[in-house]
Here is the input.
Amino acid sequence: MQIQLRFFASVREAVGTAQESLELPADVTTAGQVRDYLRSRGGPWAEALAEGRSLRIACNQQMAEGCELAFFPPVTGG
Amino acid sequence: MAVRVQTQDFDLTTEISALRANTPKVGAVVSFVGTVRDLNEGEHVAEMELEHYPGMTEKALEDIVAQAKSRWDIFEALVIHRVGPLKPLEQIVLVAVTSAHRGEAFDACEFIIDYLKTQAPFWKKEQTPTGARWVDARVSDDEAMAKWAQR
Here is the structure.
């Protein structure tokens, strides 16, 4: 399954990209598993998406073809 | 349009005039304006950069306004939030609400800014004398939002 990934704020800066298309392995089926999968890239990915890190994940719909997943830190507007 | 995300500044008087134009049933207008402070967490802030998630941010703001409208007897609610580079003294955000009586407008306005702070995808990056830093989310903002659940 192909999904779109978006990264914002400190997460975007840490991983060095704002978005990418990703072909998911068959066994990666939840947002949490996508986070684990990206973390396995190591380096800044392992650090920015580390388990203890406070992180928000947004999905435009249930995991499905064409889904856009976004990773970002807690929000600080206003 | 009840929700706007924009780089340009806004004028409070113009926005409120438009919000209550030709609507004599309005008896109360409450507005909140958030501005850039020059000091945060003990450090001088020379400039900040506001980032957002185009699409999701607008949807989140529209959802917050819809919640306020369903919860209080208000007529109109407007949210303008700026993005991009901003300096101390500049305006960041405007929330304005109209209603027949002040109580509903005060509550709805406070509800909208409290929810915005924790639910709408905006992020601030500050330039300080010791370098750039991303602003951490505040526990006090979560608490401010949580108080609306108890009412």
